[in-house]
Amino acid sequence: MTVTWRGVFPAACTQFHTDFSLDIPGTLKHVDAMLAAGVHGMIMMGSVGENTTLDPTEKRDLLKATVAHIGGKVPVLVGVAEYTTNEACRWAADAQKLGADGLMVLPAMVYKTDARETMAHFRSVAKASELPIMIYNNPPAYKVDITPEMFAEMADEPKFACIKESSDNPRRITDIINLTKDRYLIFAGVDDLFLECVLLGAVGWISGLVNAFPAENRLIWDLVEAGKWTEAREVYRWYTPVLHLDTHVKLVQYIKLACSECGFGTEVTRPPRLPLVGAEREEVLGIIRKAIATRPKV
Description:
The protein is of the alpha/beta class. The protein has helices at 24-36, 56-70, 85-97, 115-128, 139-142, 148-153, 171-180, 194-200, 214-225, 229-243, 251-261, 278-293, and strands at 7-10, 42-44, 76-80, 102-105, 133-137, 160-165, 185-188, 204-207.
């Protein structure tokens, strides 16, 4: 299906059994909960989906099952976060064959590419399939920065449809728009900067905490779409302490713990990520449980 680049797109968690084996039925049950809340798209096997812990067979099996399960209700995107450009191209081609509607492409993992190498990586992945691409820019996490000037240079590639802007700097949205006009659609990629990004021109939200609070994510999106900024700010202020969990190095563990507390899946992550323990666990649980106790009516 054609991707409508607008709205709330969960960066969906991947569920695992207690022996760390892939739990496809559990993942799809969680997907159903987010679909029921009215999300606009689904991103499988992004960073929150523990992409780099999955082997190629698991990735193919999960994507195939998800595409069949969703059945065209919303577009399905898949993360491309491989260690080499060749592997990224191979996975992009496989994703098209398996029915993905689009790709969310990251720079190559581990090696910190310079600007020329980074753009060559994205251009190579674009040539590997016919799918539209969301370019994921997250220099705090991945140490590779795709600058506004680089986006301007890559604007001649028509498959680059959208940007997930996660630089932690909302100024970037204005800089990109000033340089490239309406060439790219921009999604907020940091949960606790969502409202700021929308005010500056973002048309969508790639969210992690939607995994735990899908109805509330849709609520704040609907308030923004209706221009009800006072109400949107109130929901955002309630939500922000939880949204801060999205910006920590342990965001996957934090989000999965929130999901478990809200009745969506388990907190099992694959090593080297380990379960939260001690004071850290109690602190995060306190934030999550306060949000649950004070959540707005939906």
